[in-house]
Specification:
Shape: elongated
Strand order of the largest sheet: 1-2-3
Oligomer: single chain
Radius of gyration: 37 Å
Largest sheet: 3 strands, antiparallel
Number of helices: 7
Number of strands: 3
Amino acid sequence: MTSIGDVEVRAIIKFCEGIERTPTETYKMIKASSTTKECCRSLVFRWHDMFRNGRESIEDDKRCGRPSMVKTVKDKVRELIKENRRRTVREIASELGVSVSTVLDCLKEDTMSKVSAMRVPKLLKNDERERRLHCSREFVLRVEGEGLTFLDRIITTDETWLFLFDPDSKQESYVWKTPGSPPPKKARVQKSGGKHMFGFFMDRREMLLQHRKDRL
């Protein structure tokens, strides 16, 4: 059975005070009822005393200023993640004193998931981004005015280091096995100390030159 709210409980207290019931009798009656909300003894005595002194309203008193904002568990989870996005679910649960499942429910409601950082060739600075944006706009203007023929006069270059021997990654060494077969083993192998540096030169149609420099 659903319990009734605070206002209804105060109405009961006011009624009991009107028929000259004592605060203790009123409290026992409320506790014995299966339909009233749980309330503490001090609350019954306080409201009983206010009604005896002439109070008529059973509603909350109006408060000046902004209402106090009570932070929910979800709000606290958001704050902790905002402070440090690398926090684990267990760390958040331990800091807030709640269960892991509660934290997961909060994250699920916000449709949040933990992902690893995407590897990019280079993290550009602000001036580098602006320079690339300027060059891109210049290329667009030249294509509109000259067509694609001006690209034949542009040669791009790149370079990279390649090891003489590069061991298989964990993902590359995966093999299929049955539950009864032993897992495969491999010795720890490090990358070769020897490596080559390759330089590449190309236009928009083909590779023009490949240059290799050995470093052993």
